[in-house]
Every structure is written in C-alpha cells, then in structure tokens.
Amino acid sequence: MTRSDTPLRNPYLFLVGCPRSGTTLLQRMLDHHPQLAVAYDSLFIPPALRDADTSNPRVTPDLVERIRDFHRFARLGLPADTLDRLAPRARRFSDLVALIYSEFAALHGKELGGEKSPGYVRHMPLLQELFPQARFIHLVRDGRDIALSLADWGKRKSRPKGPARKYRLWAEHPLAVSALWWEYKVARGQADAAGLREGSYIEVRYEQLVAEPEFELRRLASFLELPYSDAMHQFHLGKTRNEPGLNAKSAWLPATRGIRDWRRSMPETDIELFEALAGDTLTSFGYERRYPETRGALIDQVEVLRSRWREKLPPSGSP
Questions:
Q1: More confident: 194 or 250
Q2: Confidence check: pLDDT of 104 > 60
Q3: Chain-centre distance of CA 62, in angstroms?
Q4: pLDDT (tens digit, 9 = 90+) per residue, 203-213?
Q5: What's the N-to-C CA distance of the chain in angstroms?
Q6: Helices 174-193 and 268-284, interaxial angle, to 10°?
C-alpha cells in the first residue's frame, strides 16, 4: 500500500490510552515496523507549553530549555546537542517538535517517528492543532482488568504510581478511584475523537489485539498507510526472558491472552461496585456487564465516591 499524497511530516502518530491498557505492548509492535520508530512516554509536549500564551509559540531559548529540562525528554535517547542543532531551523514550537521526531526516527534508521504516551489521551485536540497530519491510535482495555493492575501499582512502597500517588480517596477505596480514573481517561479520549480530522483516529481493543494480533496489526498498518510487516507481530523474538518473577513487560512476552482476568481475580463486591461507577462507559465500549442494574444500596455510595474522587493529595513533602 502506498501513502497518500500528503507530504510526510513527523510526528507521524500518537499512541494513547489509559495507563495499564497494554500501550507498551502495542508500542513495541509498532516500533518494530521497518519504517516507523515509536518513542516511549516522553510526554514533553504539553508541559513545554504550560506557560506559553499561545498553543504554538515561537521558538525561544526559554522554550528550548523547558523542553530540555522536562524529566521525560531524555527518554527519546537523542544526542545531547540535538536541541541546540535543531532550534535554529525551527520558527514555531510545532516545527521544532517535528524536527525532534524526525531526528528520533533517523537515529533508529527509519523515516517516520511517533510517540507512545498514554497521557496524551487528554490532549488530542491540541496535538492535532499542532500536527494536522498526525494519526491517533487509542488503545482501550476493560477497566476491570486495569483496576487489577492499578492495585499492584499502588502497592509500591517507595513511590506508588498512577492514581495511588494523586488521590486522597485511594487510601480508603482504591477500587473506586481505579474505576473513575479509567472512566475519565477513556471517555475523554472517545469524546475528543469526535472532533478530530476524519481518518486520523482509530480505536483498538486490547482484548482483540492479544487474541488476533496479526489481524489487528494489519488493520493498523492500513490505517497508517504503511505496508504490513511480520516484524511487528514478531517483536519479541530474541528478547523474551524466562526468569521467575518478571512481569509481562519486563519479560518481553508476545501478545498473551489472560495475563489479567477480572472474571477470575476480582471479588464479586468489587465487580459490582466498579460497574456501578463506570458501567455505562463499559457498555459504550462494548464490554459485558455482570450487573447491568445498580442496586439501591449502592446508589448513595456511588454518589459519595464520585464527589470525593478528585480530592488531591498534598504535594510531596507538604505537611
């Protein structure tokens, strides 16, 4: 398949979704396409614009330093002098970012560069305004499985991740926070997608990706106007590790069904509460519900939890 006549310009794609949805798996698959390099969670674009008075400011030394100083920018693995070399060639922020992703792609011997940052699911309209040519892949996973994964994230003693380090309610009700956090992320992505350029957005179900990886990867290759490559499906060859105790990401497992399954691992009371909080969103994405109706006894609890879940923790180090 050949690409359209639209001039190629990076960033070519953004892979977004709720964290713990399997975006790393899909990033590795896409990154193994011979024409495409996909960065891992650099997430630097919105923070660089935080103090700007426009969505696409002129390139200034201060803007360059904001990009350089963002703690995740180093994940791109670019040479230390990259920004200094590229900045004089860019008039606007979008020009500089395009050059950054082209440099990233070239570093990996490829033509096209993109980004996997789940957090960009909240910024798709901004990203399309800056990069009209970019494609968006929204990976969606059953929120009940994500809740199981978030529970593990929240148990980290040194620095809990995800909503565990942000919301007061987590200490009392991690399941409720997980349900409402997942609902917010995926519903925001789906709602914003309605305003994106036609043909620039696609949804992928994680469950379909691991059940029929080649079929889904062929569908994505078509969406990206790239030829299908078996290398995407075979991304794990030579990298899979078998040491005990490794999670799927660290073990570089291939697409594997059933790594988490709420049907086997989630208590019935948690299933019922999750569905009471986020059941309509589950339904909108085509997921089955075990409890289609919310029992009267849960209605008041759901209202209280919804009103409390956005209460933030104090900043680290605050009294």
A1: 194
A2: yes
A3: 28
A4: 999 999 999 99
A5: 59
A6: 10
Would you state the structure tokens that stand for residue 23, as one six-digit string? 């975006």
d(CA 127, CA 97): 11
Tokens 């499906």 label which residue?
233
Phi, psi of 59 (to 5 degrees): -75, 120
**Distance, CA of 10 to chain centre:** 18
Q: Over the stretch 3-22, which tens digit does the pLDDT of each residue have?
A: 333 345 899 999 999 999 99
User: Residue 34: which H helix or E strand, with range?
Assistant: none
Strand ranges (DSSP E) for 241-284? none
Question: How many whole angstroms separate alpha carbon 11 and alpha carbon 113?
Answer: 5
Return the sign of the alpha-carbon dihedral for residues 41, 45, 46, 48.
positive
Q: Please list, in sequence order, all residues whose beta carbon lies within 8 angstroms of the beta carbon of residue 23, skipping any fewer than 6 positions away.
A: 15, 16, 17, 116, 118, 139
pLDDT at 163 over 70: yes
pLDDT at 156 exceeding the cut of 80: no
Distance CA 248, CA 57 (A): 41
**How far is residue 34 CA from its own chain's centroid?**
22
Closest by CA to 123, choosing from 60, 55, 182, 181, is 55
Give the CA-trace dihedral at 78, 84, 89, 93, to 10 degrees.
Answer: 80
**Radius of gyration, CA atoms only, the chain:** 20
Cα-flanking dihedrals φ and ψ of residue 139, to 5°? -90, 125
Mean pLDDT of 58-86: 97
Distance CA 178, CA 190 (A): 18
Q: Give Cβ neighbours of residue 85 (< 8 Å, ≥ 6 apart).
A: none
pLDDT digits (tens, 9 = 90+) for 171-223: 999 999 999 999 999 999 999 999 999 999 999 999 999 999 999 999 999 99
